[in-house]
Design brief:
By secondary structure, this protein is of the alpha+beta class. Helices cover about 25% and strands about 25% of the residues. It contains 20 helices and 32 strands. The longest helix is centred in the last third of the chain and has 28 residues.
Length: about 800
């Protein structure tokens, strides 16, 4: 009997932003043993300095918004000012008369190219006459200078008429509510403005029966706001044509996806579109696709025969590039007297805007704590605002607020310690899919977070003023303090397809090529560390080439905390391929066999003879031979769930006279598998925690009910945390390799960083006041209202 041949292509499951996808994956040419806890590593796991640090601190790093080649034209959008209506005419004569204006484009010009078959896809609805939200682009002005384009755009007069609109879920679900089309086609209207036409209901066990038999039951209603991504670098693109070859520079989380989007829109083969990015100033989920600015920059560049730059202003990024969905969560949670959960019931309304997808707050309710009876009933509602986009932990951030506030309410009803309640309900397996975890140390995270918080408090001698009360009930002090806890669970296994190439050049330098993008997180450094460790090279000899669809092999979007666990294993395999070739070459020079050689610090050693050759010597001997290795990301393990779990603890100070909340301390303890670079990982966590603080205390997109327009847009009026709001933040990892997850033992950490922050802060406020506040953000008036109702 012979073994069946190994298949080259198999199907695997990849989870992205809470959604499972089936993908075909090419099996790697060979396997390597995973780096487990016993593997001795010196470069991976070290606090290596960012390879792009000098570029960034000297200001030489070039972002898309910095690029302005000779002869570039500037494009500025004209936007509709009503939330629902029809454009009847766009008056452009005054704008065309502004010196330096090259073009003023409305729907008519685009429609002509669509009808001629020159463009398709996204262009079919750009500048459509039907306006579905305030801020919809209806025209664009292009000029020699940005100032001229802005002046001309202000002179464009958009004529038309508005229609009744709805801006919140309650209005949208009313029987006589204006309908919100999911696309520009009125026939796409959903029943009752619901995505999919009906709520999404998931249940395990018998929730209704369990609720009626529970020893203790609590019911709470929690509100979370729509929040805006607000990246430091606004959305933007620079486009240039060379014949029928299109090159676009874009700050994006998905170079290859933007390439595919543009190729489809301009009816071009993929090898005629090149997308590039050197550095990026944040995306947080809002830069996963080509945007209106991308398509228009490319279209204008072809029309004008010149490079065109289309960079959104701050208001444009706030009204037209997505947001985190607002939610109302009605929660019933029940337990036995010993704290064992018996039932969780969620009815959630998620306000999405005109478009979006199922960013489910309910999934966390099925995953975070052990419970036999869980039901989620979710209504995803369309309203007349810009569409939602993924925003760092979409759905899970909102769901964690609801679930963790309900858990604290249950602890109060049980008169039980809050951490003890959670420790009594740690899941032993993935309850949603009934399979094992590759690693899940949530219990240890809780124990360590509580220990770290108490340790910090015991050594803190700065407890600010004499009138600050201790953590005690019945205090009459104006300033009170509290501590809160919250946990998270987020799928972080990554997955295929992802490819990498590693080259050992004749001077001993190493080049890593991967088609990923660095969002500011340090991807270049992480991949360089993995390559150097695998090959045995000095880290300073390794250069990563990323951010270019023409020069690098394919990798997917940087979303869902996927980059390191997806691309890292591909880089390791490519470097291992080179290492094997290098050993073969060196064995001939040292008159031995490859398996007798070791490599360290860019030197190949033969211990038996004491001989060695460094990479440069071997390169000279090989001449112009370039040792090139190829690697690909293999399939995810079957029947295993890969998650990052963690706990955050917050200490707050609340002024009961003004309602102002100050976060004094945030402590994070997460189980994320192997940490490739602790400094970069801690920075990731701190950034997410600071975003979570903003979500807890300040951030809320507000829309005028009468006009349907967003209020307080831009970085000045949309309140976000600044350095003055930054608390003492401490980050700790339970650093242990997850050898079952992938060959480098790492999981993602980007989204887990933000998920538990806001509920930990909200629970700390409730602890300080003795009164919960069930609506975010925790503005002074909401805090004072809760105190008044107590």
């Amino acid at each position: 009997m012979t073994d069946s041949p190994r298949r080259r292509f198999v199907t695997t499951t990849v989870e992205v932003e809470g959604r499972e996808e089936q993908r075909v994956v090419e099996l790697p040419a060979f396997d390597v043993a995973p780096w487990d806890d016993d593997t001795v590593l010196d470069i991976v796991g070290s606090r290596a300095t960012r390879v792009d640090a000098r570029e960034k601190i000297t200001g030489r790093a070039r972002y898309t918004t910095d690029l302005a080649p000779r002869g570039v034209k500037h494009a500025v959008f004209v936007r509709a000012e009503w939330a629902n209506g029809t454009v009847t005419h766009v008056e452009v004569e005054a704008a065309q008369a502004v010196p330096g204006v090259c073009a003023v484009i409305t729907r008519a010009e685009l429609a002509a190219d669509v009808e001629a078959g020159l463009i398709g896809g996204a262009f079919a609805t750009l500048f459509d006459h039907n306006v579905r939200y305030a801020g919809t682009p209806v025209a664009v002005v292009c000029a020699d200078t940005l100032a001229a384009a802005q002046q001309a755009a202000a002179l464009v007069q958009v004529q038309g008429h508005g229609r009744p609109h709805v801006i919140n879920a309650a209005e949208a679900l009313a029987p006589d509510a204006p309908r919100v089309p999911r696309t520009f086609d009125e026939a796409s209207v959903s029943a009752q403005n619901l995505l999919g036409g009906a709520p999404v209901v998931l249940e395990r066990g018998d929730v209704s029966h369990a609720l009626t038999r529970a020893d203790v039951r609590v019911d709470v209603t929690v509100h979370t706001p729509a929040a805006l991504h607000s990246p430091l670098e606004p959305h933007g693109a620079l486009a240039e044509w060379n014949g029928d070859q299109l090159t676009v520079w874009e700050g994006t989380q998905g170079l290859f996806r933007v390439r595919d989007n543009l190729a489809a829109a301009f009816r071009l083969p993929l090898n005629h579109v090149r997308v590039r990015m050197e550095h990026m100033g944040g995306g947080f989920g809002a830069k996963n696709y080509a945007g209106t600015h991308t398509y228009i920059a490319a279209w204008l560049a072809r029309r004008l025969g010149a490079p065109v730059r289309c960079i959104l202003d701050r208001d444009g990024t706030q009204v037209d590039t997505g947001h985190r969905s607002a939610t109302t969560q009605v929660i019933s949670i029940a337990a036995n007297r010993d704290g064992t959960l018996t039932a969780i019931d969620l009815t959630a309304t998620i306000t999405m805007g005109v478009s979006g997808w199922l960013a489910s707050p309910g999934q966390l309710y099925h995953e975070l704590y052990a419970c036999p009876n869980v039901r989620t009933h979710e209504s995803f509602v369309h309203v007349h605002t810009g569409g939602m986009q993924a925003f760092r932990g979409p759905g899970y951030v909102e769901g964690c607020v609801g679930l963790e506030l309900a858990m604290d309410a249950l602890a109060r009803a049980l008169d039980m310690d809050r951490v003890a309640l959670r420790l009594a309900n740690i899941p032993q397996h993935d309850q949603r899919r009934e399979r094992a975890y590759s690693g899940h140390r949530l219990r240890e995270c809780f124990v360590e977070a509580e220990r770290r918080m108490h340790q910090a408090l015991a050594h803190d001698t700065s407890h600010r003023a004499a009138d600050v009360a201790p953590l005690a009930a019945g205090t009459t002090s104006r300033l009170v303090r509290g501590i809160g806890y919250a946990a998270e669970c987020w799928s972080t296994g990554g997955g295929p397809p992802a490819y990498a190439t590693v080259q050992l050049l004749r001077d001993g330098s190493v080049q890593v090529l991967a088609g990923t993008q660095d969002l500011g997180t340090g991807a270049r450094t992480i991949l360089a560390q993995i390559a150097a460790q695998t090959l045995g090279a000095r880290l300073e000899c390794v250069r990563c080439v990323i951010g270019d669809t023409e020069r690098t092999p394919y990798t997917g979007n940087s979303w869902g905390s996927m980059t390191t666990p997806s691309v890292g294993p591909a880089v390791r395999l490519a470097a291992e391929d080179v290492r094997r070739q290098l050993c073969d070459a060196a064995a001939g020079l040292l008159n031995t066999t490859p398996d007798e050689l070791t490599i360290h610090d860019s030197v190949v050693h033969h211990a038996a003879s004491g001989q060695s050759r460094d990479f440069t010597e071997i390169g000279r001997a090989l001449g112009n031979i370039v040792l090139t290795g190829h690697g690909s990301r293999g399939p995810n393990p079957d029947d295993t769930t890969i998650v990052t779990v963690g706990v955050q603890a917050a200490e707050v100070e609340v002024d009961r006279g003004t309602g102002i909340v100050r976060v004094l301390r945030l402590i994070a303890v997460h189980d994320a598998g192997r940490i490739i670079n602790p400094t970069l990982a801690e920075a990731q966590m701190e950034g997410g925690m600071l975003q979570g603080l903003g979500y807890a205390l300040f951030e809320e997109r507000r829309v005028d009910a009468t006009l349907g327009v967003s209020l307080a847009t831009g970085l000045h009026d949309y309140k976000m945390p600044t350095a003055a709001d930054c608390p003492d933040m401490r980050v700790y990892f339970l650093d242990a390799a997850d050898a079952a997850a992938n060959s480098i033992g790492a999981r993602g950490i980007a989204e887990p960083a933000i998920i538990p922050t806001a509920p930990a802060i909200a629970n700390a406020v409730a602890h300080a006041l003795g009164v919960p506040v069930y609506a975010l953000p925790l503005t002074p008036w909401r805090v004072l209202e809760a105190i008044a109702k107590a």
